[in-house]
Amino acid sequence: MDKVRLGIIGIGGMGTNHARSILEGKVPDMVLTAVADIRKERLDFAKDNLSSDLALFSDGKELIDSGLCDAVLIATAHYQHPEYVSYALTHGVHALSEKPAGVYTKQVKEMNEVAAKSDKVFAIMLNQRTNCVYRKLHEMMQSGELGALKRVNWIITDWYRTQAYYDAAGWKATWAGEGGGVLINQCPHQLDLLQWLCGMPTKVRAFCHEAKWHNIEVEDDVTAYLEFANGATGVFVTTTGDAPGTNRLELTFEMGKIVCENDNLIFDKVSENVSTHCKTEKEGFKKPDCTRITVETDGLNEQHIGVFKAFAGRILRGEKLVAEGAEGINGLTLSNAMYLSSWLDKTVEIPFDEDLFLKELDKRRATSKIKQDAGIVFDTTGTY
Amino acid sequence: MDKVRLGIIGIGGMGTNHARSILEGKVPDMVLTAVADIRKERLDFAKDNLSSDLALFSDGKELIDSGLCDAVLIATAHYQHPEYVSYALTHGVHALSEKPAGVYTKQVKEMNEVAAKSDKVFAIMLNQRTNCVYRKLHEMMQSGELGALKRVNWIITDWYRTQAYYDAAGWKATWAGEGGGVLINQCPHQLDLLQWLCGMPTKVRAFCHEAKWHNIEVEDDVTAYLEFANGATGVFVTTTGDAPGTNRLELTFEMGKIVCENDNLIFDKVSENVSTHCKTEKEGFKKPDCTRITVETDGLNEQHIGVFKAFAGRILRGEKLVAEGAEGINGLTLSNAMYLSSWLDKTVEIPFDEDLFLKELDKRRATSKIKQDAGIVFDTTGTY
What is the DSSP-derived secondary structure letter of residue A129? Predict the structure, then answer.
């Protein structure tokens, strides 16, 4: 294989963006050969606006079976991600899934089991892991130089969306069509990064507010409290209702504090492990000395292109992925736990009861109303 | 009356600080005439180190009855604040209480009832209300220019204390002696400011961790989730275990966001009410325009001296207090609600069951162990 022949299943906002990137040659190891969508107007759009050379399919599985693609990107509605990934991997085609991995962990666990038995590559679009700031933070936390994690506080409220955003697509922000709101659509990146950096919490207490700022079925405002195995605590706050909003991640360690905001890492480094200092210092109010360091990174932040390049690199040369597909379940576990905690109005331990979660989700799907589709596909460039 | 003759009841760390300020003439309308303490060594200290002219009392009520004082400052252990305030006000002496107003609201409510019937002045040492930054914020929020409050997030984790701090005084950080930890000792200022700025929450869900960073009985790490009557939500995080820690208050409104940190107020002001914009904007991702403003203040921050000046001014000339004594119950209501939520492991509505709170507190007092007192009084200058 010289270049990976890619097919895109689901040519809405995100799928179209990705198609353009490949067609513009941003991923040298890849060519776009086919697109699939259940909506005829999107196929017409693709033919007229993307490339007239593309093979068009109204069924993603036909695209997979066509022999025209070595790999597929799945950019359908969330519920269908596991179905198409599993179909591709069992039909000789590599799969890259958009986030989230699925809507409920039970479904994703089954997909991961299929993937584990397949020799095809399975990746997931967790493009924020390519950001130099998070990569550097991950490296520092893995190195042990920071001591134990004590506290994390992520205010990620800069996901502003207007009512028009929700009205544009019938499946969006419905339990039946999308399976949730800001947690399932906007936050998979941060929830993945949170567990990638800090490990998985053991307990979650969340407060999800539905239709708080928009006329929608699902949550658009969430505050969650977390506890980790070592006793560290956390807060995660998100919404699509605030402007300008905030994206500020504060992490407190025995060796100081790191704040990640505006693509900077500011490290307030203490001269002595705080836990040791607390026990040995004779003065009551004296803190260890502290030095402020602006942490340098390699400055690279390839985002989606980085994920595509690594995906092609794995297929062609066995290189490292940005995120293994099977890791997509971790962030989803967090959002599922937040929903369940809020629905049950109590603290949820991880692992939680997946059957109970699905039962609760199905209750909401049963009364969910898919809206009239306005047929608008927004240009999503630079919004994720 | 030419000058207010002040007596200080409780001449520990805070009482000593205040005594020095008065003796140094920082409050022109006041003279210090007497001090009281149950500890003979503190009276000896006062005589030798403060002023040999001071009348000394081993009983605060004798000081009140002595006729040497027009007003008293109560700086005893927290449980005794209401008792001495009530005694002063019913014996013809004006009272200024250190924070907190007491340990449980039931006790403070009784004190407030006594105060309501007295013609003497009752004030409370909520000195952070003199800070220009909080005064300006209060003024802006009261003016209505910011629209409705949507969200508040206060990370106040710069209250670092060493184990030596807790070991120094036997009553500190015990249920029986102090009645709590970081919420009752360090945070009354922030809890008062929170309700002063945002109004009282209607629901509280808190997670108080006892002895997490220190060898103490009480909590030294708290995360609380709040809900307000208008639907706004909040997060309050505090600890005495972090260094360097953070003091960052973020408030989100329909007209933008204000961050209060490092004695600055940064206002990200949007061009249009976010709630209106959300409904009318045709683009899905477009935020209203935003301008960053560094809010100017009058720069005045008198702290304790400001509270004393206003207290004397009220007594002598009927001027405005920094904080009416009766308002002390508000911040205490918040901390009581946080304890109760954590003890019961569930959300608590405000007003909560005060008898239940006292029953739960008394359980903890019953098994509480007042420690051996190391007899150390730290210089607290600049630590509050």
Answer: G
